[in-house]
Design goal:
Layout: H1 2-22, H2 28-43, H3 47-52, H4 55-65, H5 69-86, H6 90-107, H7 113-134
Helix pairs in contact: 1-2, 1-5, 2-5, 5-6, 6-7
């Protein structure tokens, strides 16, 4: 119960941020500052560092920490989704969204039903955005 509350609080924080990004009330620089704060708060590492590493390396860092792997993976998925949806370049959009799928996949089947529904919804949105970009 505590874990789900923790994840829901993180989802709410990210949801507010992503809504502001998609409504274009944040510049890319402001978005990056927000991501830095969120990732330091939830992972102890800055977003700029995590985004510079391969998705596999980031995930291995999360696994090595042995704490909140699912929560950290969800956070990274949301950051990649937001960056992908706000990206102007088709190439970077596909890369960001592909990384989001990777991290959502790491959460799938490891959370309760309501959180799984949230992940499934995000995955559907990411897949649709990738399909739109390709098609």
């Amino acid at each position: 119960m505590i874990r789900e509350d923790y994840i829901m609080r993180m989802i709410q924080q990210i949801g507010v941020l992503v809504a502001r990004i998609l409504n274009q009330s944040l510049s890319h620089e402001e978005m990056d500052v927000e991501f830095e704060g969120l990732t330091v708060q939830w992972t102890g590492l800055p977003a700029s560092m995590l985004l510079a590493l391969s998705k596999e390396k980031v995930y291995s860092l999360f696994e090595e920490s042995e704490r909140m792997v699912v929560e950290k993976s969800y956070l990274m998925a949301e950051i990649y989704r937001a960056k992908g949806l706000s990206s102007e370049s088709a190439e970077s959009k596909r890369e960001f969204l592909g990384n989001a799928k990777f991290f959502y996949g790491k959460c799938t089947g490891l959370v309760d039903e309501s959180l799984q529904n949230e992940i499934d919804s995000r995955l559907a949105e990411v897949n649709a955005s990738i399909d739109d970009e390709i098609g």
